[in-house]
Write a structure and sequence with these properties.
The chain is built from no helices and twelve strands. With about 170 residues, the protein is mainly β. Among the domains are: about 50 residues; about 55 residues. It has a five-stranded antiparallel beta sheet, with no helix packed on it. A five-stranded antiparallel beta sheet has the order 9-8-7-6-10, with no helix packed on it. Strands 11-12 form a two-stranded antiparallel ribbon.
Length: about 170
């Protein structure tokens, strides 16, 4: 992922001269330009010569640690907004999260079967509670008397009545 500073904004109402952007090559003479380190969040495709590209990649500062109060028993959907440089394979996108004190387990799927890891909560933003359907373990057996042939025999056993169905 490249980064650079816009040096020519004369042909664009979106770009700002002197502002730093993330650059994603589109051929040899153009870049998709983004405010975020995510190609899918680009604001457009612009000429490569409008940017001064950095020799080495800059990594954004870690978001400030902030207190986030979530119910530990609930499931949330949130956007991952930052990760350490070593975690580059993790995309900055929305995940399902289970909060655990100051961290959260994040999952790629709503069924919570594809765990991506455990990151600090302040690396996420836009928390939205996800409704979960509780699956009942009860099995209800229904039948009609006419479907089954049985006789009712009541016997006394040690002072208790015992019902015999056959």
């Amino acid at each position: 992922m490249l980064q650079g500073v816009c040096i020519d904004d004369s042909q664009s109402a979106v770009l700002e001269k002197g502002k730093q952007y993330y650059l994603f090559p589109n051929g040899s003479k153009h870049f998709y330009v983004s405010n975020f380190p995510n190609k899918n969040a680009h604001t457009g495709c612009y000429q490569a010569d409008w940017f001064a590209v950095y020799e080495q990649e800059l990594w954004p500062e870690e978001p400030e640690v902030r207190e986030i109060e979530l119910d530990m028993e609930k499931l949330y959907k949130a956007s991952l907004i930052w990760r350490r440089k070593g975690y580059r394979s993790t995309e900055l996108k929305e995940y399902y999260i289970e909060p655990k004190e100051t961290h959260a387990y994040f999952f790629h799927d709503r069924e919570l079967k594809r765990c991506g890891g455990c990151y600090p909560l302040h690396w996420f933003s836009g928390f939205v509670e996800v409704e979960t359907e509780q699956i009942s373990d009860e099995i209800i057996l229904e039948f009609e008397e006419s479907d089954h042939d049985y006789t009712e025999d009541v016997q006394e056993f040690n002072g208790y009545e015992q019902l015999s169905l056959f």
